[in-house]
Design a protein that fits this description.
With about 270 residues, this protein is α+β, with helices and mostly antiparallel strands. Helix content is about 35%, strand content about 25%.
Length: about 270
Protein backbone atom coordinates (compact mmCIF):
# COMPACT_ATOMS: atom_id res chain seq x y z
CA UNK A 1 0.00 0.00 0.00
CA UNK A 2 1.27 3.46 -0.92
CA UNK A 3 1.87 5.63 2.17
CA UNK A 4 -0.65 8.43 2.61
CA UNK A 5 -0.26 12.10 3.52
CA UNK A 6 -1.51 11.14 6.99
CA UNK A 7 1.42 8.73 7.35
CA UNK A 8 3.82 11.44 6.16
CA UNK A 9 2.39 13.87 8.71
CA UNK A 10 2.73 11.35 11.55
CA UNK A 11 6.40 10.74 10.77
CA UNK A 12 7.08 14.47 10.29
CA UNK A 13 5.44 15.25 13.62
CA UNK A 14 7.43 12.75 15.65
CA UNK A 15 10.64 13.64 13.85
CA UNK A 16 10.22 17.40 14.28
CA UNK A 17 9.60 16.98 18.00
CA UNK A 18 12.68 14.80 18.39
CA UNK A 19 14.83 17.26 16.44
CA UNK A 20 13.35 20.12 18.46
CA UNK A 21 14.44 18.45 21.68
CA UNK A 22 17.97 18.16 20.30
CA UNK A 23 18.28 21.82 19.34
CA UNK A 24 16.61 23.01 22.56
CA UNK A 25 19.04 20.93 24.64
CA UNK A 26 21.98 22.52 22.78
CA UNK A 27 20.60 26.05 22.80
CA UNK A 28 22.45 27.40 25.83
CA UNK A 29 25.60 25.35 25.38
CA UNK A 30 28.69 26.21 23.35
CA UNK A 31 28.11 26.05 19.61
CA UNK A 32 30.21 26.02 16.47
CA UNK A 33 28.97 28.78 14.14
CA UNK A 34 30.15 29.13 10.55
CA UNK A 35 29.27 31.47 7.68
CA UNK A 36 27.87 29.75 4.59
CA UNK A 37 27.53 33.08 2.78
CA UNK A 38 26.31 36.64 3.14
CA UNK A 39 24.12 36.80 6.28
CA UNK A 40 23.83 32.99 6.16
CA UNK A 41 24.90 31.01 9.22
CA UNK A 42 25.07 27.33 10.12
CA UNK A 43 25.72 25.80 13.54
CA UNK A 44 26.71 22.34 14.68
CA UNK A 45 23.11 21.95 15.92
CA UNK A 46 21.76 22.54 12.37
CA UNK A 47 23.94 19.71 11.08
CA UNK A 48 23.05 17.33 13.91
CA UNK A 49 19.32 18.06 13.68
CA UNK A 50 19.25 17.60 9.90
CA UNK A 51 21.05 14.26 10.21
CA UNK A 52 18.50 13.12 12.79
CA UNK A 53 15.56 14.24 10.62
CA UNK A 54 16.79 12.66 7.41
CA UNK A 55 17.75 9.43 9.17
CA UNK A 56 14.27 9.09 10.69
CA UNK A 57 12.50 9.81 7.40
CA UNK A 58 14.77 7.48 5.40
CA UNK A 59 14.05 4.71 7.91
CA UNK A 60 10.31 5.18 7.41
CA UNK A 61 10.38 5.88 3.66
CA UNK A 62 13.62 4.57 2.14
CA UNK A 63 12.63 5.38 -1.45
CA UNK A 64 11.94 9.11 -0.85
CA UNK A 65 14.16 12.04 -1.78
CA UNK A 66 15.24 15.23 -0.03
CA UNK A 67 15.77 18.92 -0.56
CA UNK A 68 17.41 20.13 2.64
CA UNK A 69 18.86 23.39 3.91
CA UNK A 70 22.30 21.97 4.72
CA UNK A 71 24.05 20.38 1.77
CA UNK A 72 24.63 16.64 2.12
CA UNK A 73 25.86 14.69 -0.88
CA UNK A 74 24.77 11.45 0.75
CA UNK A 75 21.09 12.39 0.66
CA UNK A 76 19.07 11.06 -2.29
CA UNK A 77 17.27 13.76 -4.27
CA UNK A 78 14.93 11.68 -6.39
CA UNK A 79 11.84 9.88 -5.18
CA UNK A 80 8.07 9.71 -5.53
CA UNK A 81 7.96 12.01 -2.51
CA UNK A 82 10.47 14.76 -1.76
CA UNK A 83 11.01 15.99 1.78
CA UNK A 84 11.84 19.66 2.28
CA UNK A 85 13.80 20.03 5.50
CA UNK A 86 15.02 23.05 7.43
CA UNK A 87 16.48 21.74 10.70
CA UNK A 88 16.65 25.19 12.31
CA UNK A 89 14.76 27.98 10.58
CA UNK A 90 16.02 31.07 12.38
CA UNK A 91 19.66 30.10 12.81
CA UNK A 92 20.74 33.70 13.37
CA UNK A 93 18.34 33.89 16.32
CA UNK A 94 19.45 30.49 17.56
CA UNK A 95 23.14 31.37 17.38
CA UNK A 96 22.53 34.44 19.60
CA UNK A 97 20.22 32.63 22.04
CA UNK A 98 17.15 34.50 20.84
CA UNK A 99 14.34 31.97 21.46
CA UNK A 100 12.56 32.37 18.12
CA UNK A 101 13.34 29.49 15.75
CA UNK A 102 11.77 26.24 14.62
CA UNK A 103 12.08 22.93 12.83
CA UNK A 104 10.34 22.82 9.44
CA UNK A 105 9.54 19.57 7.59
CA UNK A 106 7.27 19.12 4.57
CA UNK A 107 6.42 16.29 2.18
CA UNK A 108 5.93 17.09 -1.51
CA UNK A 109 4.14 14.68 -3.82
CA UNK A 110 3.36 15.32 -7.51
CA UNK A 111 4.44 18.94 -7.10
CA UNK A 112 2.14 19.65 -4.16
CA UNK A 113 2.97 20.03 -0.48
CA UNK A 114 0.79 17.34 1.09
CA UNK A 115 1.94 17.44 4.71
CA UNK A 116 3.90 19.91 6.78
CA UNK A 117 5.06 20.53 10.33
CA UNK A 118 6.56 23.61 11.97
CA UNK A 119 7.73 22.90 15.52
CA UNK A 120 8.73 25.62 17.98
CA UNK A 121 10.68 23.74 20.66
CA UNK A 122 11.01 26.70 23.04
CA UNK A 123 7.22 26.97 23.42
CA UNK A 124 6.41 23.34 22.63
CA UNK A 125 4.08 24.50 19.86
CA UNK A 126 3.50 22.13 16.97
CA UNK A 127 1.88 23.69 13.91
CA UNK A 128 0.84 21.16 11.28
CA UNK A 129 -1.28 20.75 8.17
CA UNK A 130 -2.36 18.12 5.69
CA UNK A 131 -3.50 19.02 2.20
CA UNK A 132 -7.28 19.21 2.07
CA UNK A 133 -7.68 18.37 5.76
CA UNK A 134 -6.95 21.61 7.65
CA UNK A 135 -4.29 23.06 9.92
CA UNK A 136 -3.66 22.65 13.62
CA UNK A 137 -1.72 23.98 16.58
CA UNK A 138 -1.06 21.20 19.09
CA UNK A 139 -3.99 19.27 17.57
CA UNK A 140 -6.41 22.21 17.84
CA UNK A 141 -7.75 23.53 14.50
CA UNK A 142 -6.51 27.00 13.52
CA UNK A 143 -7.79 29.59 11.07
CA UNK A 144 -6.42 32.71 9.51
CA UNK A 145 -7.25 35.93 11.41
CA UNK A 146 -10.45 37.69 10.22
CA UNK A 147 -8.72 41.10 10.34
CA UNK A 148 -11.15 43.42 8.50
CA UNK A 149 -8.72 46.02 7.13
CA UNK A 150 -5.10 46.55 6.19
CA UNK A 151 -4.91 49.39 8.72
CA UNK A 152 -5.54 46.86 11.52
CA UNK A 153 -3.00 44.35 10.24
CA UNK A 154 0.17 43.11 11.89
CA UNK A 155 2.62 42.56 9.05
CA UNK A 156 5.81 40.48 9.35
CA UNK A 157 8.69 40.50 6.90
CA UNK A 158 12.14 39.14 6.26
CA UNK A 159 14.80 41.02 4.34
CA UNK A 160 16.56 39.55 1.33
CA UNK A 161 20.28 38.81 1.27
CA UNK A 162 20.47 40.49 -2.15
CA UNK A 163 21.55 44.16 -1.72
CA UNK A 164 19.34 45.49 -4.54
CA UNK A 165 16.27 43.67 -3.25
CA UNK A 166 16.97 44.86 0.28
CA UNK A 167 17.07 48.46 -0.96
CA UNK A 168 13.74 47.95 -2.74
CA UNK A 169 12.24 46.43 0.40
CA UNK A 170 13.38 49.36 2.53
CA UNK A 171 11.65 51.72 0.08
CA UNK A 172 8.53 49.53 0.10
CA UNK A 173 8.54 49.50 3.89
CA UNK A 174 8.26 53.30 3.97
CA UNK A 175 5.03 52.91 1.98
CA UNK A 176 3.43 49.85 3.56
CA UNK A 177 4.49 50.85 7.06
CA UNK A 178 2.01 53.75 6.98
CA UNK A 179 -0.81 51.48 5.81
CA UNK A 180 -0.65 48.74 8.47
CA UNK A 181 -1.02 48.72 12.24
CA UNK A 182 2.58 47.60 12.85
CA UNK A 183 5.46 45.63 11.36
CA UNK A 184 7.48 42.77 12.84
CA UNK A 185 10.64 40.95 11.73
CA UNK A 186 10.91 37.75 13.76
CA UNK A 187 13.76 36.08 11.89
CA UNK A 188 12.11 32.78 10.95
CA UNK A 189 10.06 32.49 7.77
CA UNK A 190 8.55 29.12 8.68
CA UNK A 191 7.46 30.31 12.10
CA UNK A 192 6.07 33.57 10.73
CA UNK A 193 3.98 31.62 8.22
CA UNK A 194 2.73 29.30 10.97
CA UNK A 195 1.75 32.37 13.00
CA UNK A 196 -0.15 33.74 10.01
CA UNK A 197 -2.04 30.46 9.80
CA UNK A 198 -2.78 30.57 13.52
CA UNK A 199 -4.09 34.15 13.33
CA UNK A 200 -1.25 35.78 15.26
CA UNK A 201 -0.03 37.71 12.22
CA UNK A 202 -2.13 39.01 9.33
CA UNK A 203 0.46 38.94 6.56
CA UNK A 204 4.04 37.89 5.90
CA UNK A 205 6.47 38.89 3.15
CA UNK A 206 9.77 37.32 2.19
CA UNK A 207 11.48 38.19 -1.09
CA UNK A 208 14.21 35.57 -1.00
CA UNK A 209 13.29 32.48 1.03
CA UNK A 210 14.02 28.98 -0.25
CA UNK A 211 11.42 26.21 -0.69
CA UNK A 212 12.39 24.51 2.59
CA UNK A 213 11.69 27.77 4.44
CA UNK A 214 8.18 28.08 3.01
CA UNK A 215 6.76 24.64 2.26
CA UNK A 216 5.45 23.56 5.67
CA UNK A 217 4.40 27.02 6.88
CA UNK A 218 2.84 27.81 3.52
CA UNK A 219 0.66 24.72 3.68
CA UNK A 220 -0.44 25.76 7.18
CA UNK A 221 -1.46 29.17 5.80
CA UNK A 222 -3.38 27.66 2.89
CA UNK A 223 -5.14 25.03 4.99
CA UNK A 224 -6.06 27.69 7.57
CA UNK A 225 -7.90 29.66 4.87
CA UNK A 226 -5.18 32.11 3.83
CA UNK A 227 -3.64 33.15 0.53
CA UNK A 228 -0.09 32.24 -0.49
CA UNK A 229 1.68 33.50 -3.61
CA UNK A 230 5.23 34.15 -4.70
CA UNK A 231 6.33 37.82 -4.82
CA UNK A 232 5.29 38.00 -8.48
CA UNK A 233 1.71 37.06 -7.60
CA UNK A 234 1.67 33.48 -8.90
CA UNK A 235 0.44 30.70 -6.61
CA UNK A 236 3.39 29.49 -4.55
CA UNK A 237 4.70 26.01 -5.31
CA UNK A 238 7.93 24.27 -4.29
CA UNK A 239 9.12 24.80 -7.87
CA UNK A 240 8.19 28.50 -8.02
CA UNK A 241 10.76 30.33 -10.20
CA UNK A 242 10.55 33.43 -7.98
CA UNK A 243 11.97 32.89 -4.52
CA UNK A 244 10.07 34.09 -1.48
CA UNK A 245 6.38 34.38 -0.67
CA UNK A 246 3.54 36.70 0.30
CA UNK A 247 0.97 35.24 2.72
CA UNK A 248 -2.07 36.57 4.50
CA UNK A 249 -5.83 36.69 4.70
CA UNK A 250 -8.05 37.70 1.80
CA UNK A 251 -8.25 41.32 2.98
CA UNK A 252 -4.57 41.96 3.70
CA UNK A 253 -2.61 39.80 1.28
CA UNK A 254 -3.75 41.39 -2.02
CA UNK A 255 -2.83 45.02 -1.17
CA UNK A 256 0.43 43.93 0.47
CA UNK A 257 1.29 41.97 -2.67
CA UNK A 258 0.31 44.85 -4.97
CA UNK A 259 2.50 47.40 -3.19
CA UNK A 260 5.38 44.93 -3.00
CA UNK A 261 5.24 44.23 -6.74
CA UNK A 262 5.21 47.94 -7.47
CA UNK A 263 8.42 48.44 -5.50
CA UNK A 264 10.23 45.31 -6.63
CA UNK A 265 9.46 46.32 -10.21
CA UNK A 266 11.02 44.68 -13.20
CA UNK A 267 13.16 42.37 -11.08
CA UNK A 268 10.01 40.33 -10.46
Amino acid sequence: MTPSAAAFLAVATATAQEAGTLIRDRWQGPRQVENKGFRDLVTDADIAAQALITDRIRSAFPDHGFLAEEEDAALPQDGAVTWLVDPIDGTSNYSRQVPVFCVSIAAVESGHVVAGVVYDPMRDELFSARRGAGAWLNKRPVQIAPTPSLSAAVLALDLSRDPQTRDQLFTWLRTIGHQVHTVRAIGSAALALAWVGAGRLDAFVNAGASPWDIAAGGLIVSEAGGLLTDPAGAPWTPAAPVRGCVAGNAVCQPPVLATLRAHLGAQR
